[in-house]
Amino acid sequence: MKTRIILVGGFLGAGKTTLLWEAARKLTKQGKHVGLITNDQASELVDTAFLELTGGVVSEVSGSCFCCNFNGFTNAISNIKAKKHVDIIIAEPVGSCTDLSATIMQPLKEKLGNDLDISPLTVLVDPERLNDILDGGTSGLHASAAYIVQKQLEEADIIAITKTDLLSQDNLELLKNRAADKWPLATILALSSKNGEGMEMWLNEVTNRLNAGTYLVEVDYDVYAEGEAVLGWLNTTLVLHGNSVKWDSLAEKLLKELGSRFDNLKAAIGHIKLLVEAGDQYVIGNLTGKKESLNIRGSAGMGNEAKMIINARVEMNPAELDNIVSEVVSKVCGEDITQKVEASKCLKPGRPNPTHRYDYIVR
């Protein structure tokens, strides 16, 4: 029996990690064994830590995207299969990556097609961002970053509109119809990881279909490189000590303060993710745009020590991003909570240089 692999792409803040967790939970209930692969330009990922805390079998490819480290990606597949028998692997590429059909889907089909059932490429998109892109806007992003979003949608086998719980049924149907008119060859779905609507339909598509990577798109790598480079990327892990600290309140206050700082600077947020882990309890929060997009779930309770991981993707110079995050952490923690940095990486992604780039569809 072949292992099935499902790739879920989409720009930063589209809801990929939440979907991975919810999909893995539902598939596990159906008796399936599921593995997860995360991906980022640097280690210390909130996504990996969160998925491990929720009991997932997780492998991480860090330091470069799947497409620029195809061997690392295939090694991650092998590592998961070596850890445990898995029926399905769900992989989440870096949110600022595109051209996945040429650089991931076609090589997978040609090199691992005998070992894997390869599902259609799903691209998630936030409804507000999709509306703005369809209107010819940039959704508050740099024009080159918006270009990446456009190319992601153009190459998708399945376009899944997320966060549909935020839309009325009429507005959702209008948005689906507009997307279908723009990308008539893609399957247009809508789903909400929050209330579960549309999840079963999407899972049915990706666990049964085999027509994967059916489109190739023309990508201007100069524009693509600029779109990635306008974002500063920060991953940092800290150990916090205090006296009976309410970790949930700290997490919320920190995210709100970061959101306000970036709003005031008019710096577009790709995403800011935060995880506070205290013993066997955790709280996870994220911002995917304006500070009003704040979402927090879970609870780390009250205690004296916790580990905190922060991932931030913001349109600004990496050094400035690093300084702002450090300042805000110090301000929110004050004199009562000490902070020790365990690991930190702040960077600007380099030019995409894929391991493989096919100019034909592998049948």
Structural notes for this entry:
With 363 residues, this protein is an alpha/beta fold. It has helices at residues 16-29, 46-53, 70-83, 100-112, 127-134, 143-154, 169-182, 199-208, 221-229, 247-264, 318-333, and strands at 3-10, 34-40, 57-62, 88-91, 116-118, 122-125, 158-161, 187-190, 232-246, 269-278, 281-287, 295-299, 302-314, 338-347. The chain starts with a strand and ends in a 16-residue tail after the last strand. It has 2 domains: 3-227, P-loop containing nucleotide triphosphate hydrolases (Rossmann fold, 3-Layer(aba) Sandwich); 231-347, 2-Layer Sandwich (Alpha-Beta Plaits), CATH 3.30.70. Helices cover 37% and strands 28% of the residues. α10 (247-264) packs across α11.
Mean pLDDT: 94
Indicate the CATH class of the largest domain. Answer: Alpha Beta
Largest sheet data: 8 strands, parallel
Which stretches of 5+ consecutive residues score pLDDT under 50? none
Named CATH architecture of the largest domain: 3-Layer(aba) Sandwich
- What's the SSE pattern? EHEHEHEHEEHHEHEHHEHEEEEHE
Radius of gyration: 20 Å
CATH topology of the largest domain: Rossmann fold
* Tally of structural domains: 2
Count of individual beta strands:
14
- How far apart are the first and last residues' alpha carbons, in Å? 21 Å
**DSSP helix count?**
11
Structural class: alpha/beta
Task: Indicate the percent of residues in helices.
Answer: 25-40%
Strand content range: 25-35%
User: What sort of overall outline do the alpha carbons produce when their principal axes are compared?
Assistant: globular
Give me the CATH superfamily of the largest domain: P-loop containing nucleotide triphosphate hydrolases
Organism: Clostridium scatologenes
Pfam families: cobW
Protein name: Cobalamin synthesis protein P47K
